[in-house]
Write a structure and sequence with these properties.
mainly alpha, disordered C terminus
């Protein structure tokens, strides 16, 4: 096992740990009402930390393992975005056990397919190591399922985005601040994901 901690990977891991502490702070101090925010922050923490650890690994098997682990973070981040957005927009009534169950179907399916990818290659068709500015990275060629998964995520999160914008003026001052930050975050996420999908992200993993 060969591991080398680079400044970039160390930053990602540290940021992931800080985000995890934030997630725990909100769930401990605000309880169930902070569940959507906790899921969002925990998902981001898991995603970024897995990314940082993957960048430390020289061997392909270890790098692949942590790349697969990222899909759990992806799914939790997606669920956090949707549930937190709905709660800010005034649709907390939709956040029932059945609502969470429905939202979890696609993330769970994606996670399972990522871990069984060698049997079908639906998530990615190839993973090639490359070096960029001294960093050992992976270039992922995505499979057909990711087209469907990406479209689904964009549609669902986009619908929440529309609800937030539509209800923005009718929300309280505190919710307006949260909604404004959330709208900005979703916009930046869309731009970042789009850049990654069309190959503009130099740190594609």
């Amino acid at each position: 096992m060969q591991i080398a901690l680079t400044p970039f990977s160390a930053f990602l891991i540290l940021f992931g740990m800080i985000t995890f502490v934030m997630a725990m702070y909100f769930i401990v101090n605000y309880g169930r009402s902070a569940a959507p925010l906790f899921v969002l922050l925990f998902g981001i923490s898991f995603w970024i930390t897995s990314y940082g650890i993957a960048l430390c690994w020289f061997g392909l098997p270890g790098r692949l393992f942590w790349t697969q682990m990222q899909y759990l973070g992806f799914g939790l981040t997606f669920m956090g975005l949707v549930t937190f957005g709905l709660s800010i927009a005034g649709y907390s009534r939709l956040l029932t056990k059945s609502g969470y169950a429905v939202l979890s179907v696609m993330p769970l399916l994606t996670f399972v397919l990522a871990w069984t990818n060698s049997l079908h290659h639906w998530v990615w068709t190839s993973i090639l190591p490359f070096t960029l500015h001294g960093l050992s990275l992976l270039h992922v060629s995505y499979g057909p399922f990711m087209v469907f998964d990406t479209a689904y995520n964009y549609i669902v999160v986009g619908a929440v985005f529309v609800l937030l914008v539509r209800n923005f003026n009718g929300t309280s001052t505190d919710n307006k601040r949260q909604a404004g930050l959330f709208i900005t975050a979703i916009s930046l996420t869309f731009i970042s994901n789009l850049a990654t999908l069309i190959g503009l992200n130099p740190f594609m993993l």
